[in-house]
Design a protein that fits this description.
It contains 11 helices and 3 strands, in the order E-H-H-H-E-H-H-H-E-H-H-H-H-H. It has a 3-stranded mixed β-sheet with strand order 2-1-3. Helix 1 runs antiparallel to helix 2, helix 4 packs antiparallel against helix 6 and helix 9 runs antiparallel to helix 10.
Length: about 300
C-alpha cells in the first residue's frame, strides 16, 4: 500500500499523562530519579561485570547485554517525556513517532529473546550441570545475543513495513507520552480490523508464546531444584525466583497491551509508565542486587576507588 495524498499528518500531539501542572512537576521529579537510577545502575552493572574476571560466566555475559538493552530502552522515550512536562503543546514529528515505534519494538523484541536465552542458561545449569561449560560456551552466548538483536529488529521492521504506508488524515492526538503501534494505528483513515489482527499475531501472540515457554521451562527447573537439598540448590532457587519475577513484570504489561491492542482503558497510561520507565530498573534491582558475586565485585570496586581517592 503506497502513501496517498490523504496522509496529511506531519506531526502528532502527545496528550501526556496529565494536564495538571502540579502533578506534572511531581511526575517529573519521580521519573527523573528513576531514569537516572536506571541508566546509572545498568552502566554500573556493565562496568562491574566487564572489570572483574570472576564474573565472566555465560549468565553474567547475558546479564551485561540485558543491561545494555535496558539503557537503550530508558533513552528512547523517557528523556522527551521529562522535557514535555514543561511544554504546553507536546508534539512529535511523523518521522520521530515512527522512530519511537521502531526502537520500542526492537528493544522489547531483543529483550524477550535474551530472557529466553537466560532461561536456557539456567535450564542447562540445573538439568545438565556436568555439561554446562561445554554447552554454554562463549560462541553460543554470542549467537544468543546476535539472534536476540536480529529478532528484535526484524520484528520491528515487520511493523513498520505497513505503518509507514498507512494514510493519516487526522486527528493526530496520541493519548500517551510516546508513540506506540496501537495508539498510532487508531489515527489512520482506514478500517483497523486487518491491522488489529496483524498486531495481535506479530506482538501479542509472540509475547504470550515466549511468556508461556519461559514459565514452563522455569517450572521444570523449579521441580528439579526442589528435589535437591544442597546449599547450591538453595542459591539456584534464589536466582530462579529473581528471574521469574523479571519475566512476570516484563511480559505482563506487554501481553496486556498487544493481546487487546485497540481496547483503551484508564489503567493503560500507568502501565505504559511502568513498562517504559520502571522496567529498565528491574535488571539492576532484581538480578544484580540479589547476586552475591556481583555484590562482592561491587564492594571490591568501591574499596579500590576509595583507597585510590585517599591516596
Amino acid at each position: 500500500m503506497a502513501r496517498t495524498n490523504e496522509s496529511v499528518v506531519r506531526e502528532f500531539v502527545l496528550l501526556g499523562l496529565t494536564s495538571s501542572y502540579e502533578l506534572q512537576l511531581f511526575f517529573f521529579v519521580i521519573f527523573s530519579i528513576m531514569y537516572v537510577a536506571s541508566v546509572l545502575g545498568n552502566i554500573m552493572i556493565i562496568a562491574i561485570i566487564s572489570s572483574d574476571s570472576h564474573l565472566n560466566s555465560p549468565m553474567n555475559f547475558l546479564l551485561r547485554n540485558l543491561s545494555f538493552i535496558d539503557i537503550c530502552q530508558s533513552n528512547f522515550a523517557t528523556p522527551k517525556m521529562l522535557v514535555d512536562f514543561f511544554v504546553e503543546h507536546k508534539t512529535i514529528s511523523f518521522e520521530g513517532c515512527i522512530t519511537q515505534i521502531f526502537l520500542l519494538h526492537s528493544f522489547v523484541g531483543s529483550e524477550m529473546m535474551l530472557l529466553v536465552a537466560m532461561a536456557y542458561d539456567r535450564f542447562i545449569a540445573i538439568r545438565k550441570p556436568l555439561h554446562y561449560s561445554t554447552i554454554m560456551n562463549q560462541r553460543l552466548c554470542m549467537i544468543f545475543v546476535f539472534i536476540s538483536w536480529a529478532v528484535g529488529i526484524l520484528h520491528s521492521v515487520s511493523h513498520l513495513a505497513f505503518i509507514v504506508a498507512l494514510p493519516f488524515c487526522g486527528p493526530n492526538e496520541v493519548d500517551s507520552f510516546f508513540c506506540d503501534l496501537p495508539l498510532v494505528i487508531e489515527l489512520t483513515c482506514i478500517d483497523r480490523y486487518e491491522m488489529e489482527i496483524m498486531t495481535l499475531i506479530n506482538s501479542g501472540l509472540i509475547s504470550l508464546s515466549c511468556f508461556l515457554a519461559l514459565i514452563i521451562s522455569y517450572t521444570i527447573i523449579l521441580i528439579t531444584v526442589r528435589h535437591r537439598s544442597s546449599s547450591g540448590s538453595s542459591k539456584a532457587l534464589l536466582t530462579l525466583t529473581a528471574h521469574i519475577t523479571v519475566v512476570i513484570l516484563f511480559f505482563g504489561p506487554c501481553i496486556y497491551f498487544y493481546i487487546w491492542p485497540f481496547s483503551r482503558f484508564s489503567v493503560d497510561k500507568f502501565l505504559s509508565v511502568f513498562y517504559i520507565v520502571c522496567t529498565p530498573l528491574l535488571n539492576p534491582i532484581i538480578y544484580s542486587l540479589r547476586n552475591e558475586d556481583v555484590k562482592s565485585a561491587m564492594r571490591k570496586l568501591r574499596k579500590h576507588y576509595v583507597n585510590s581517592w585517599k591516596n
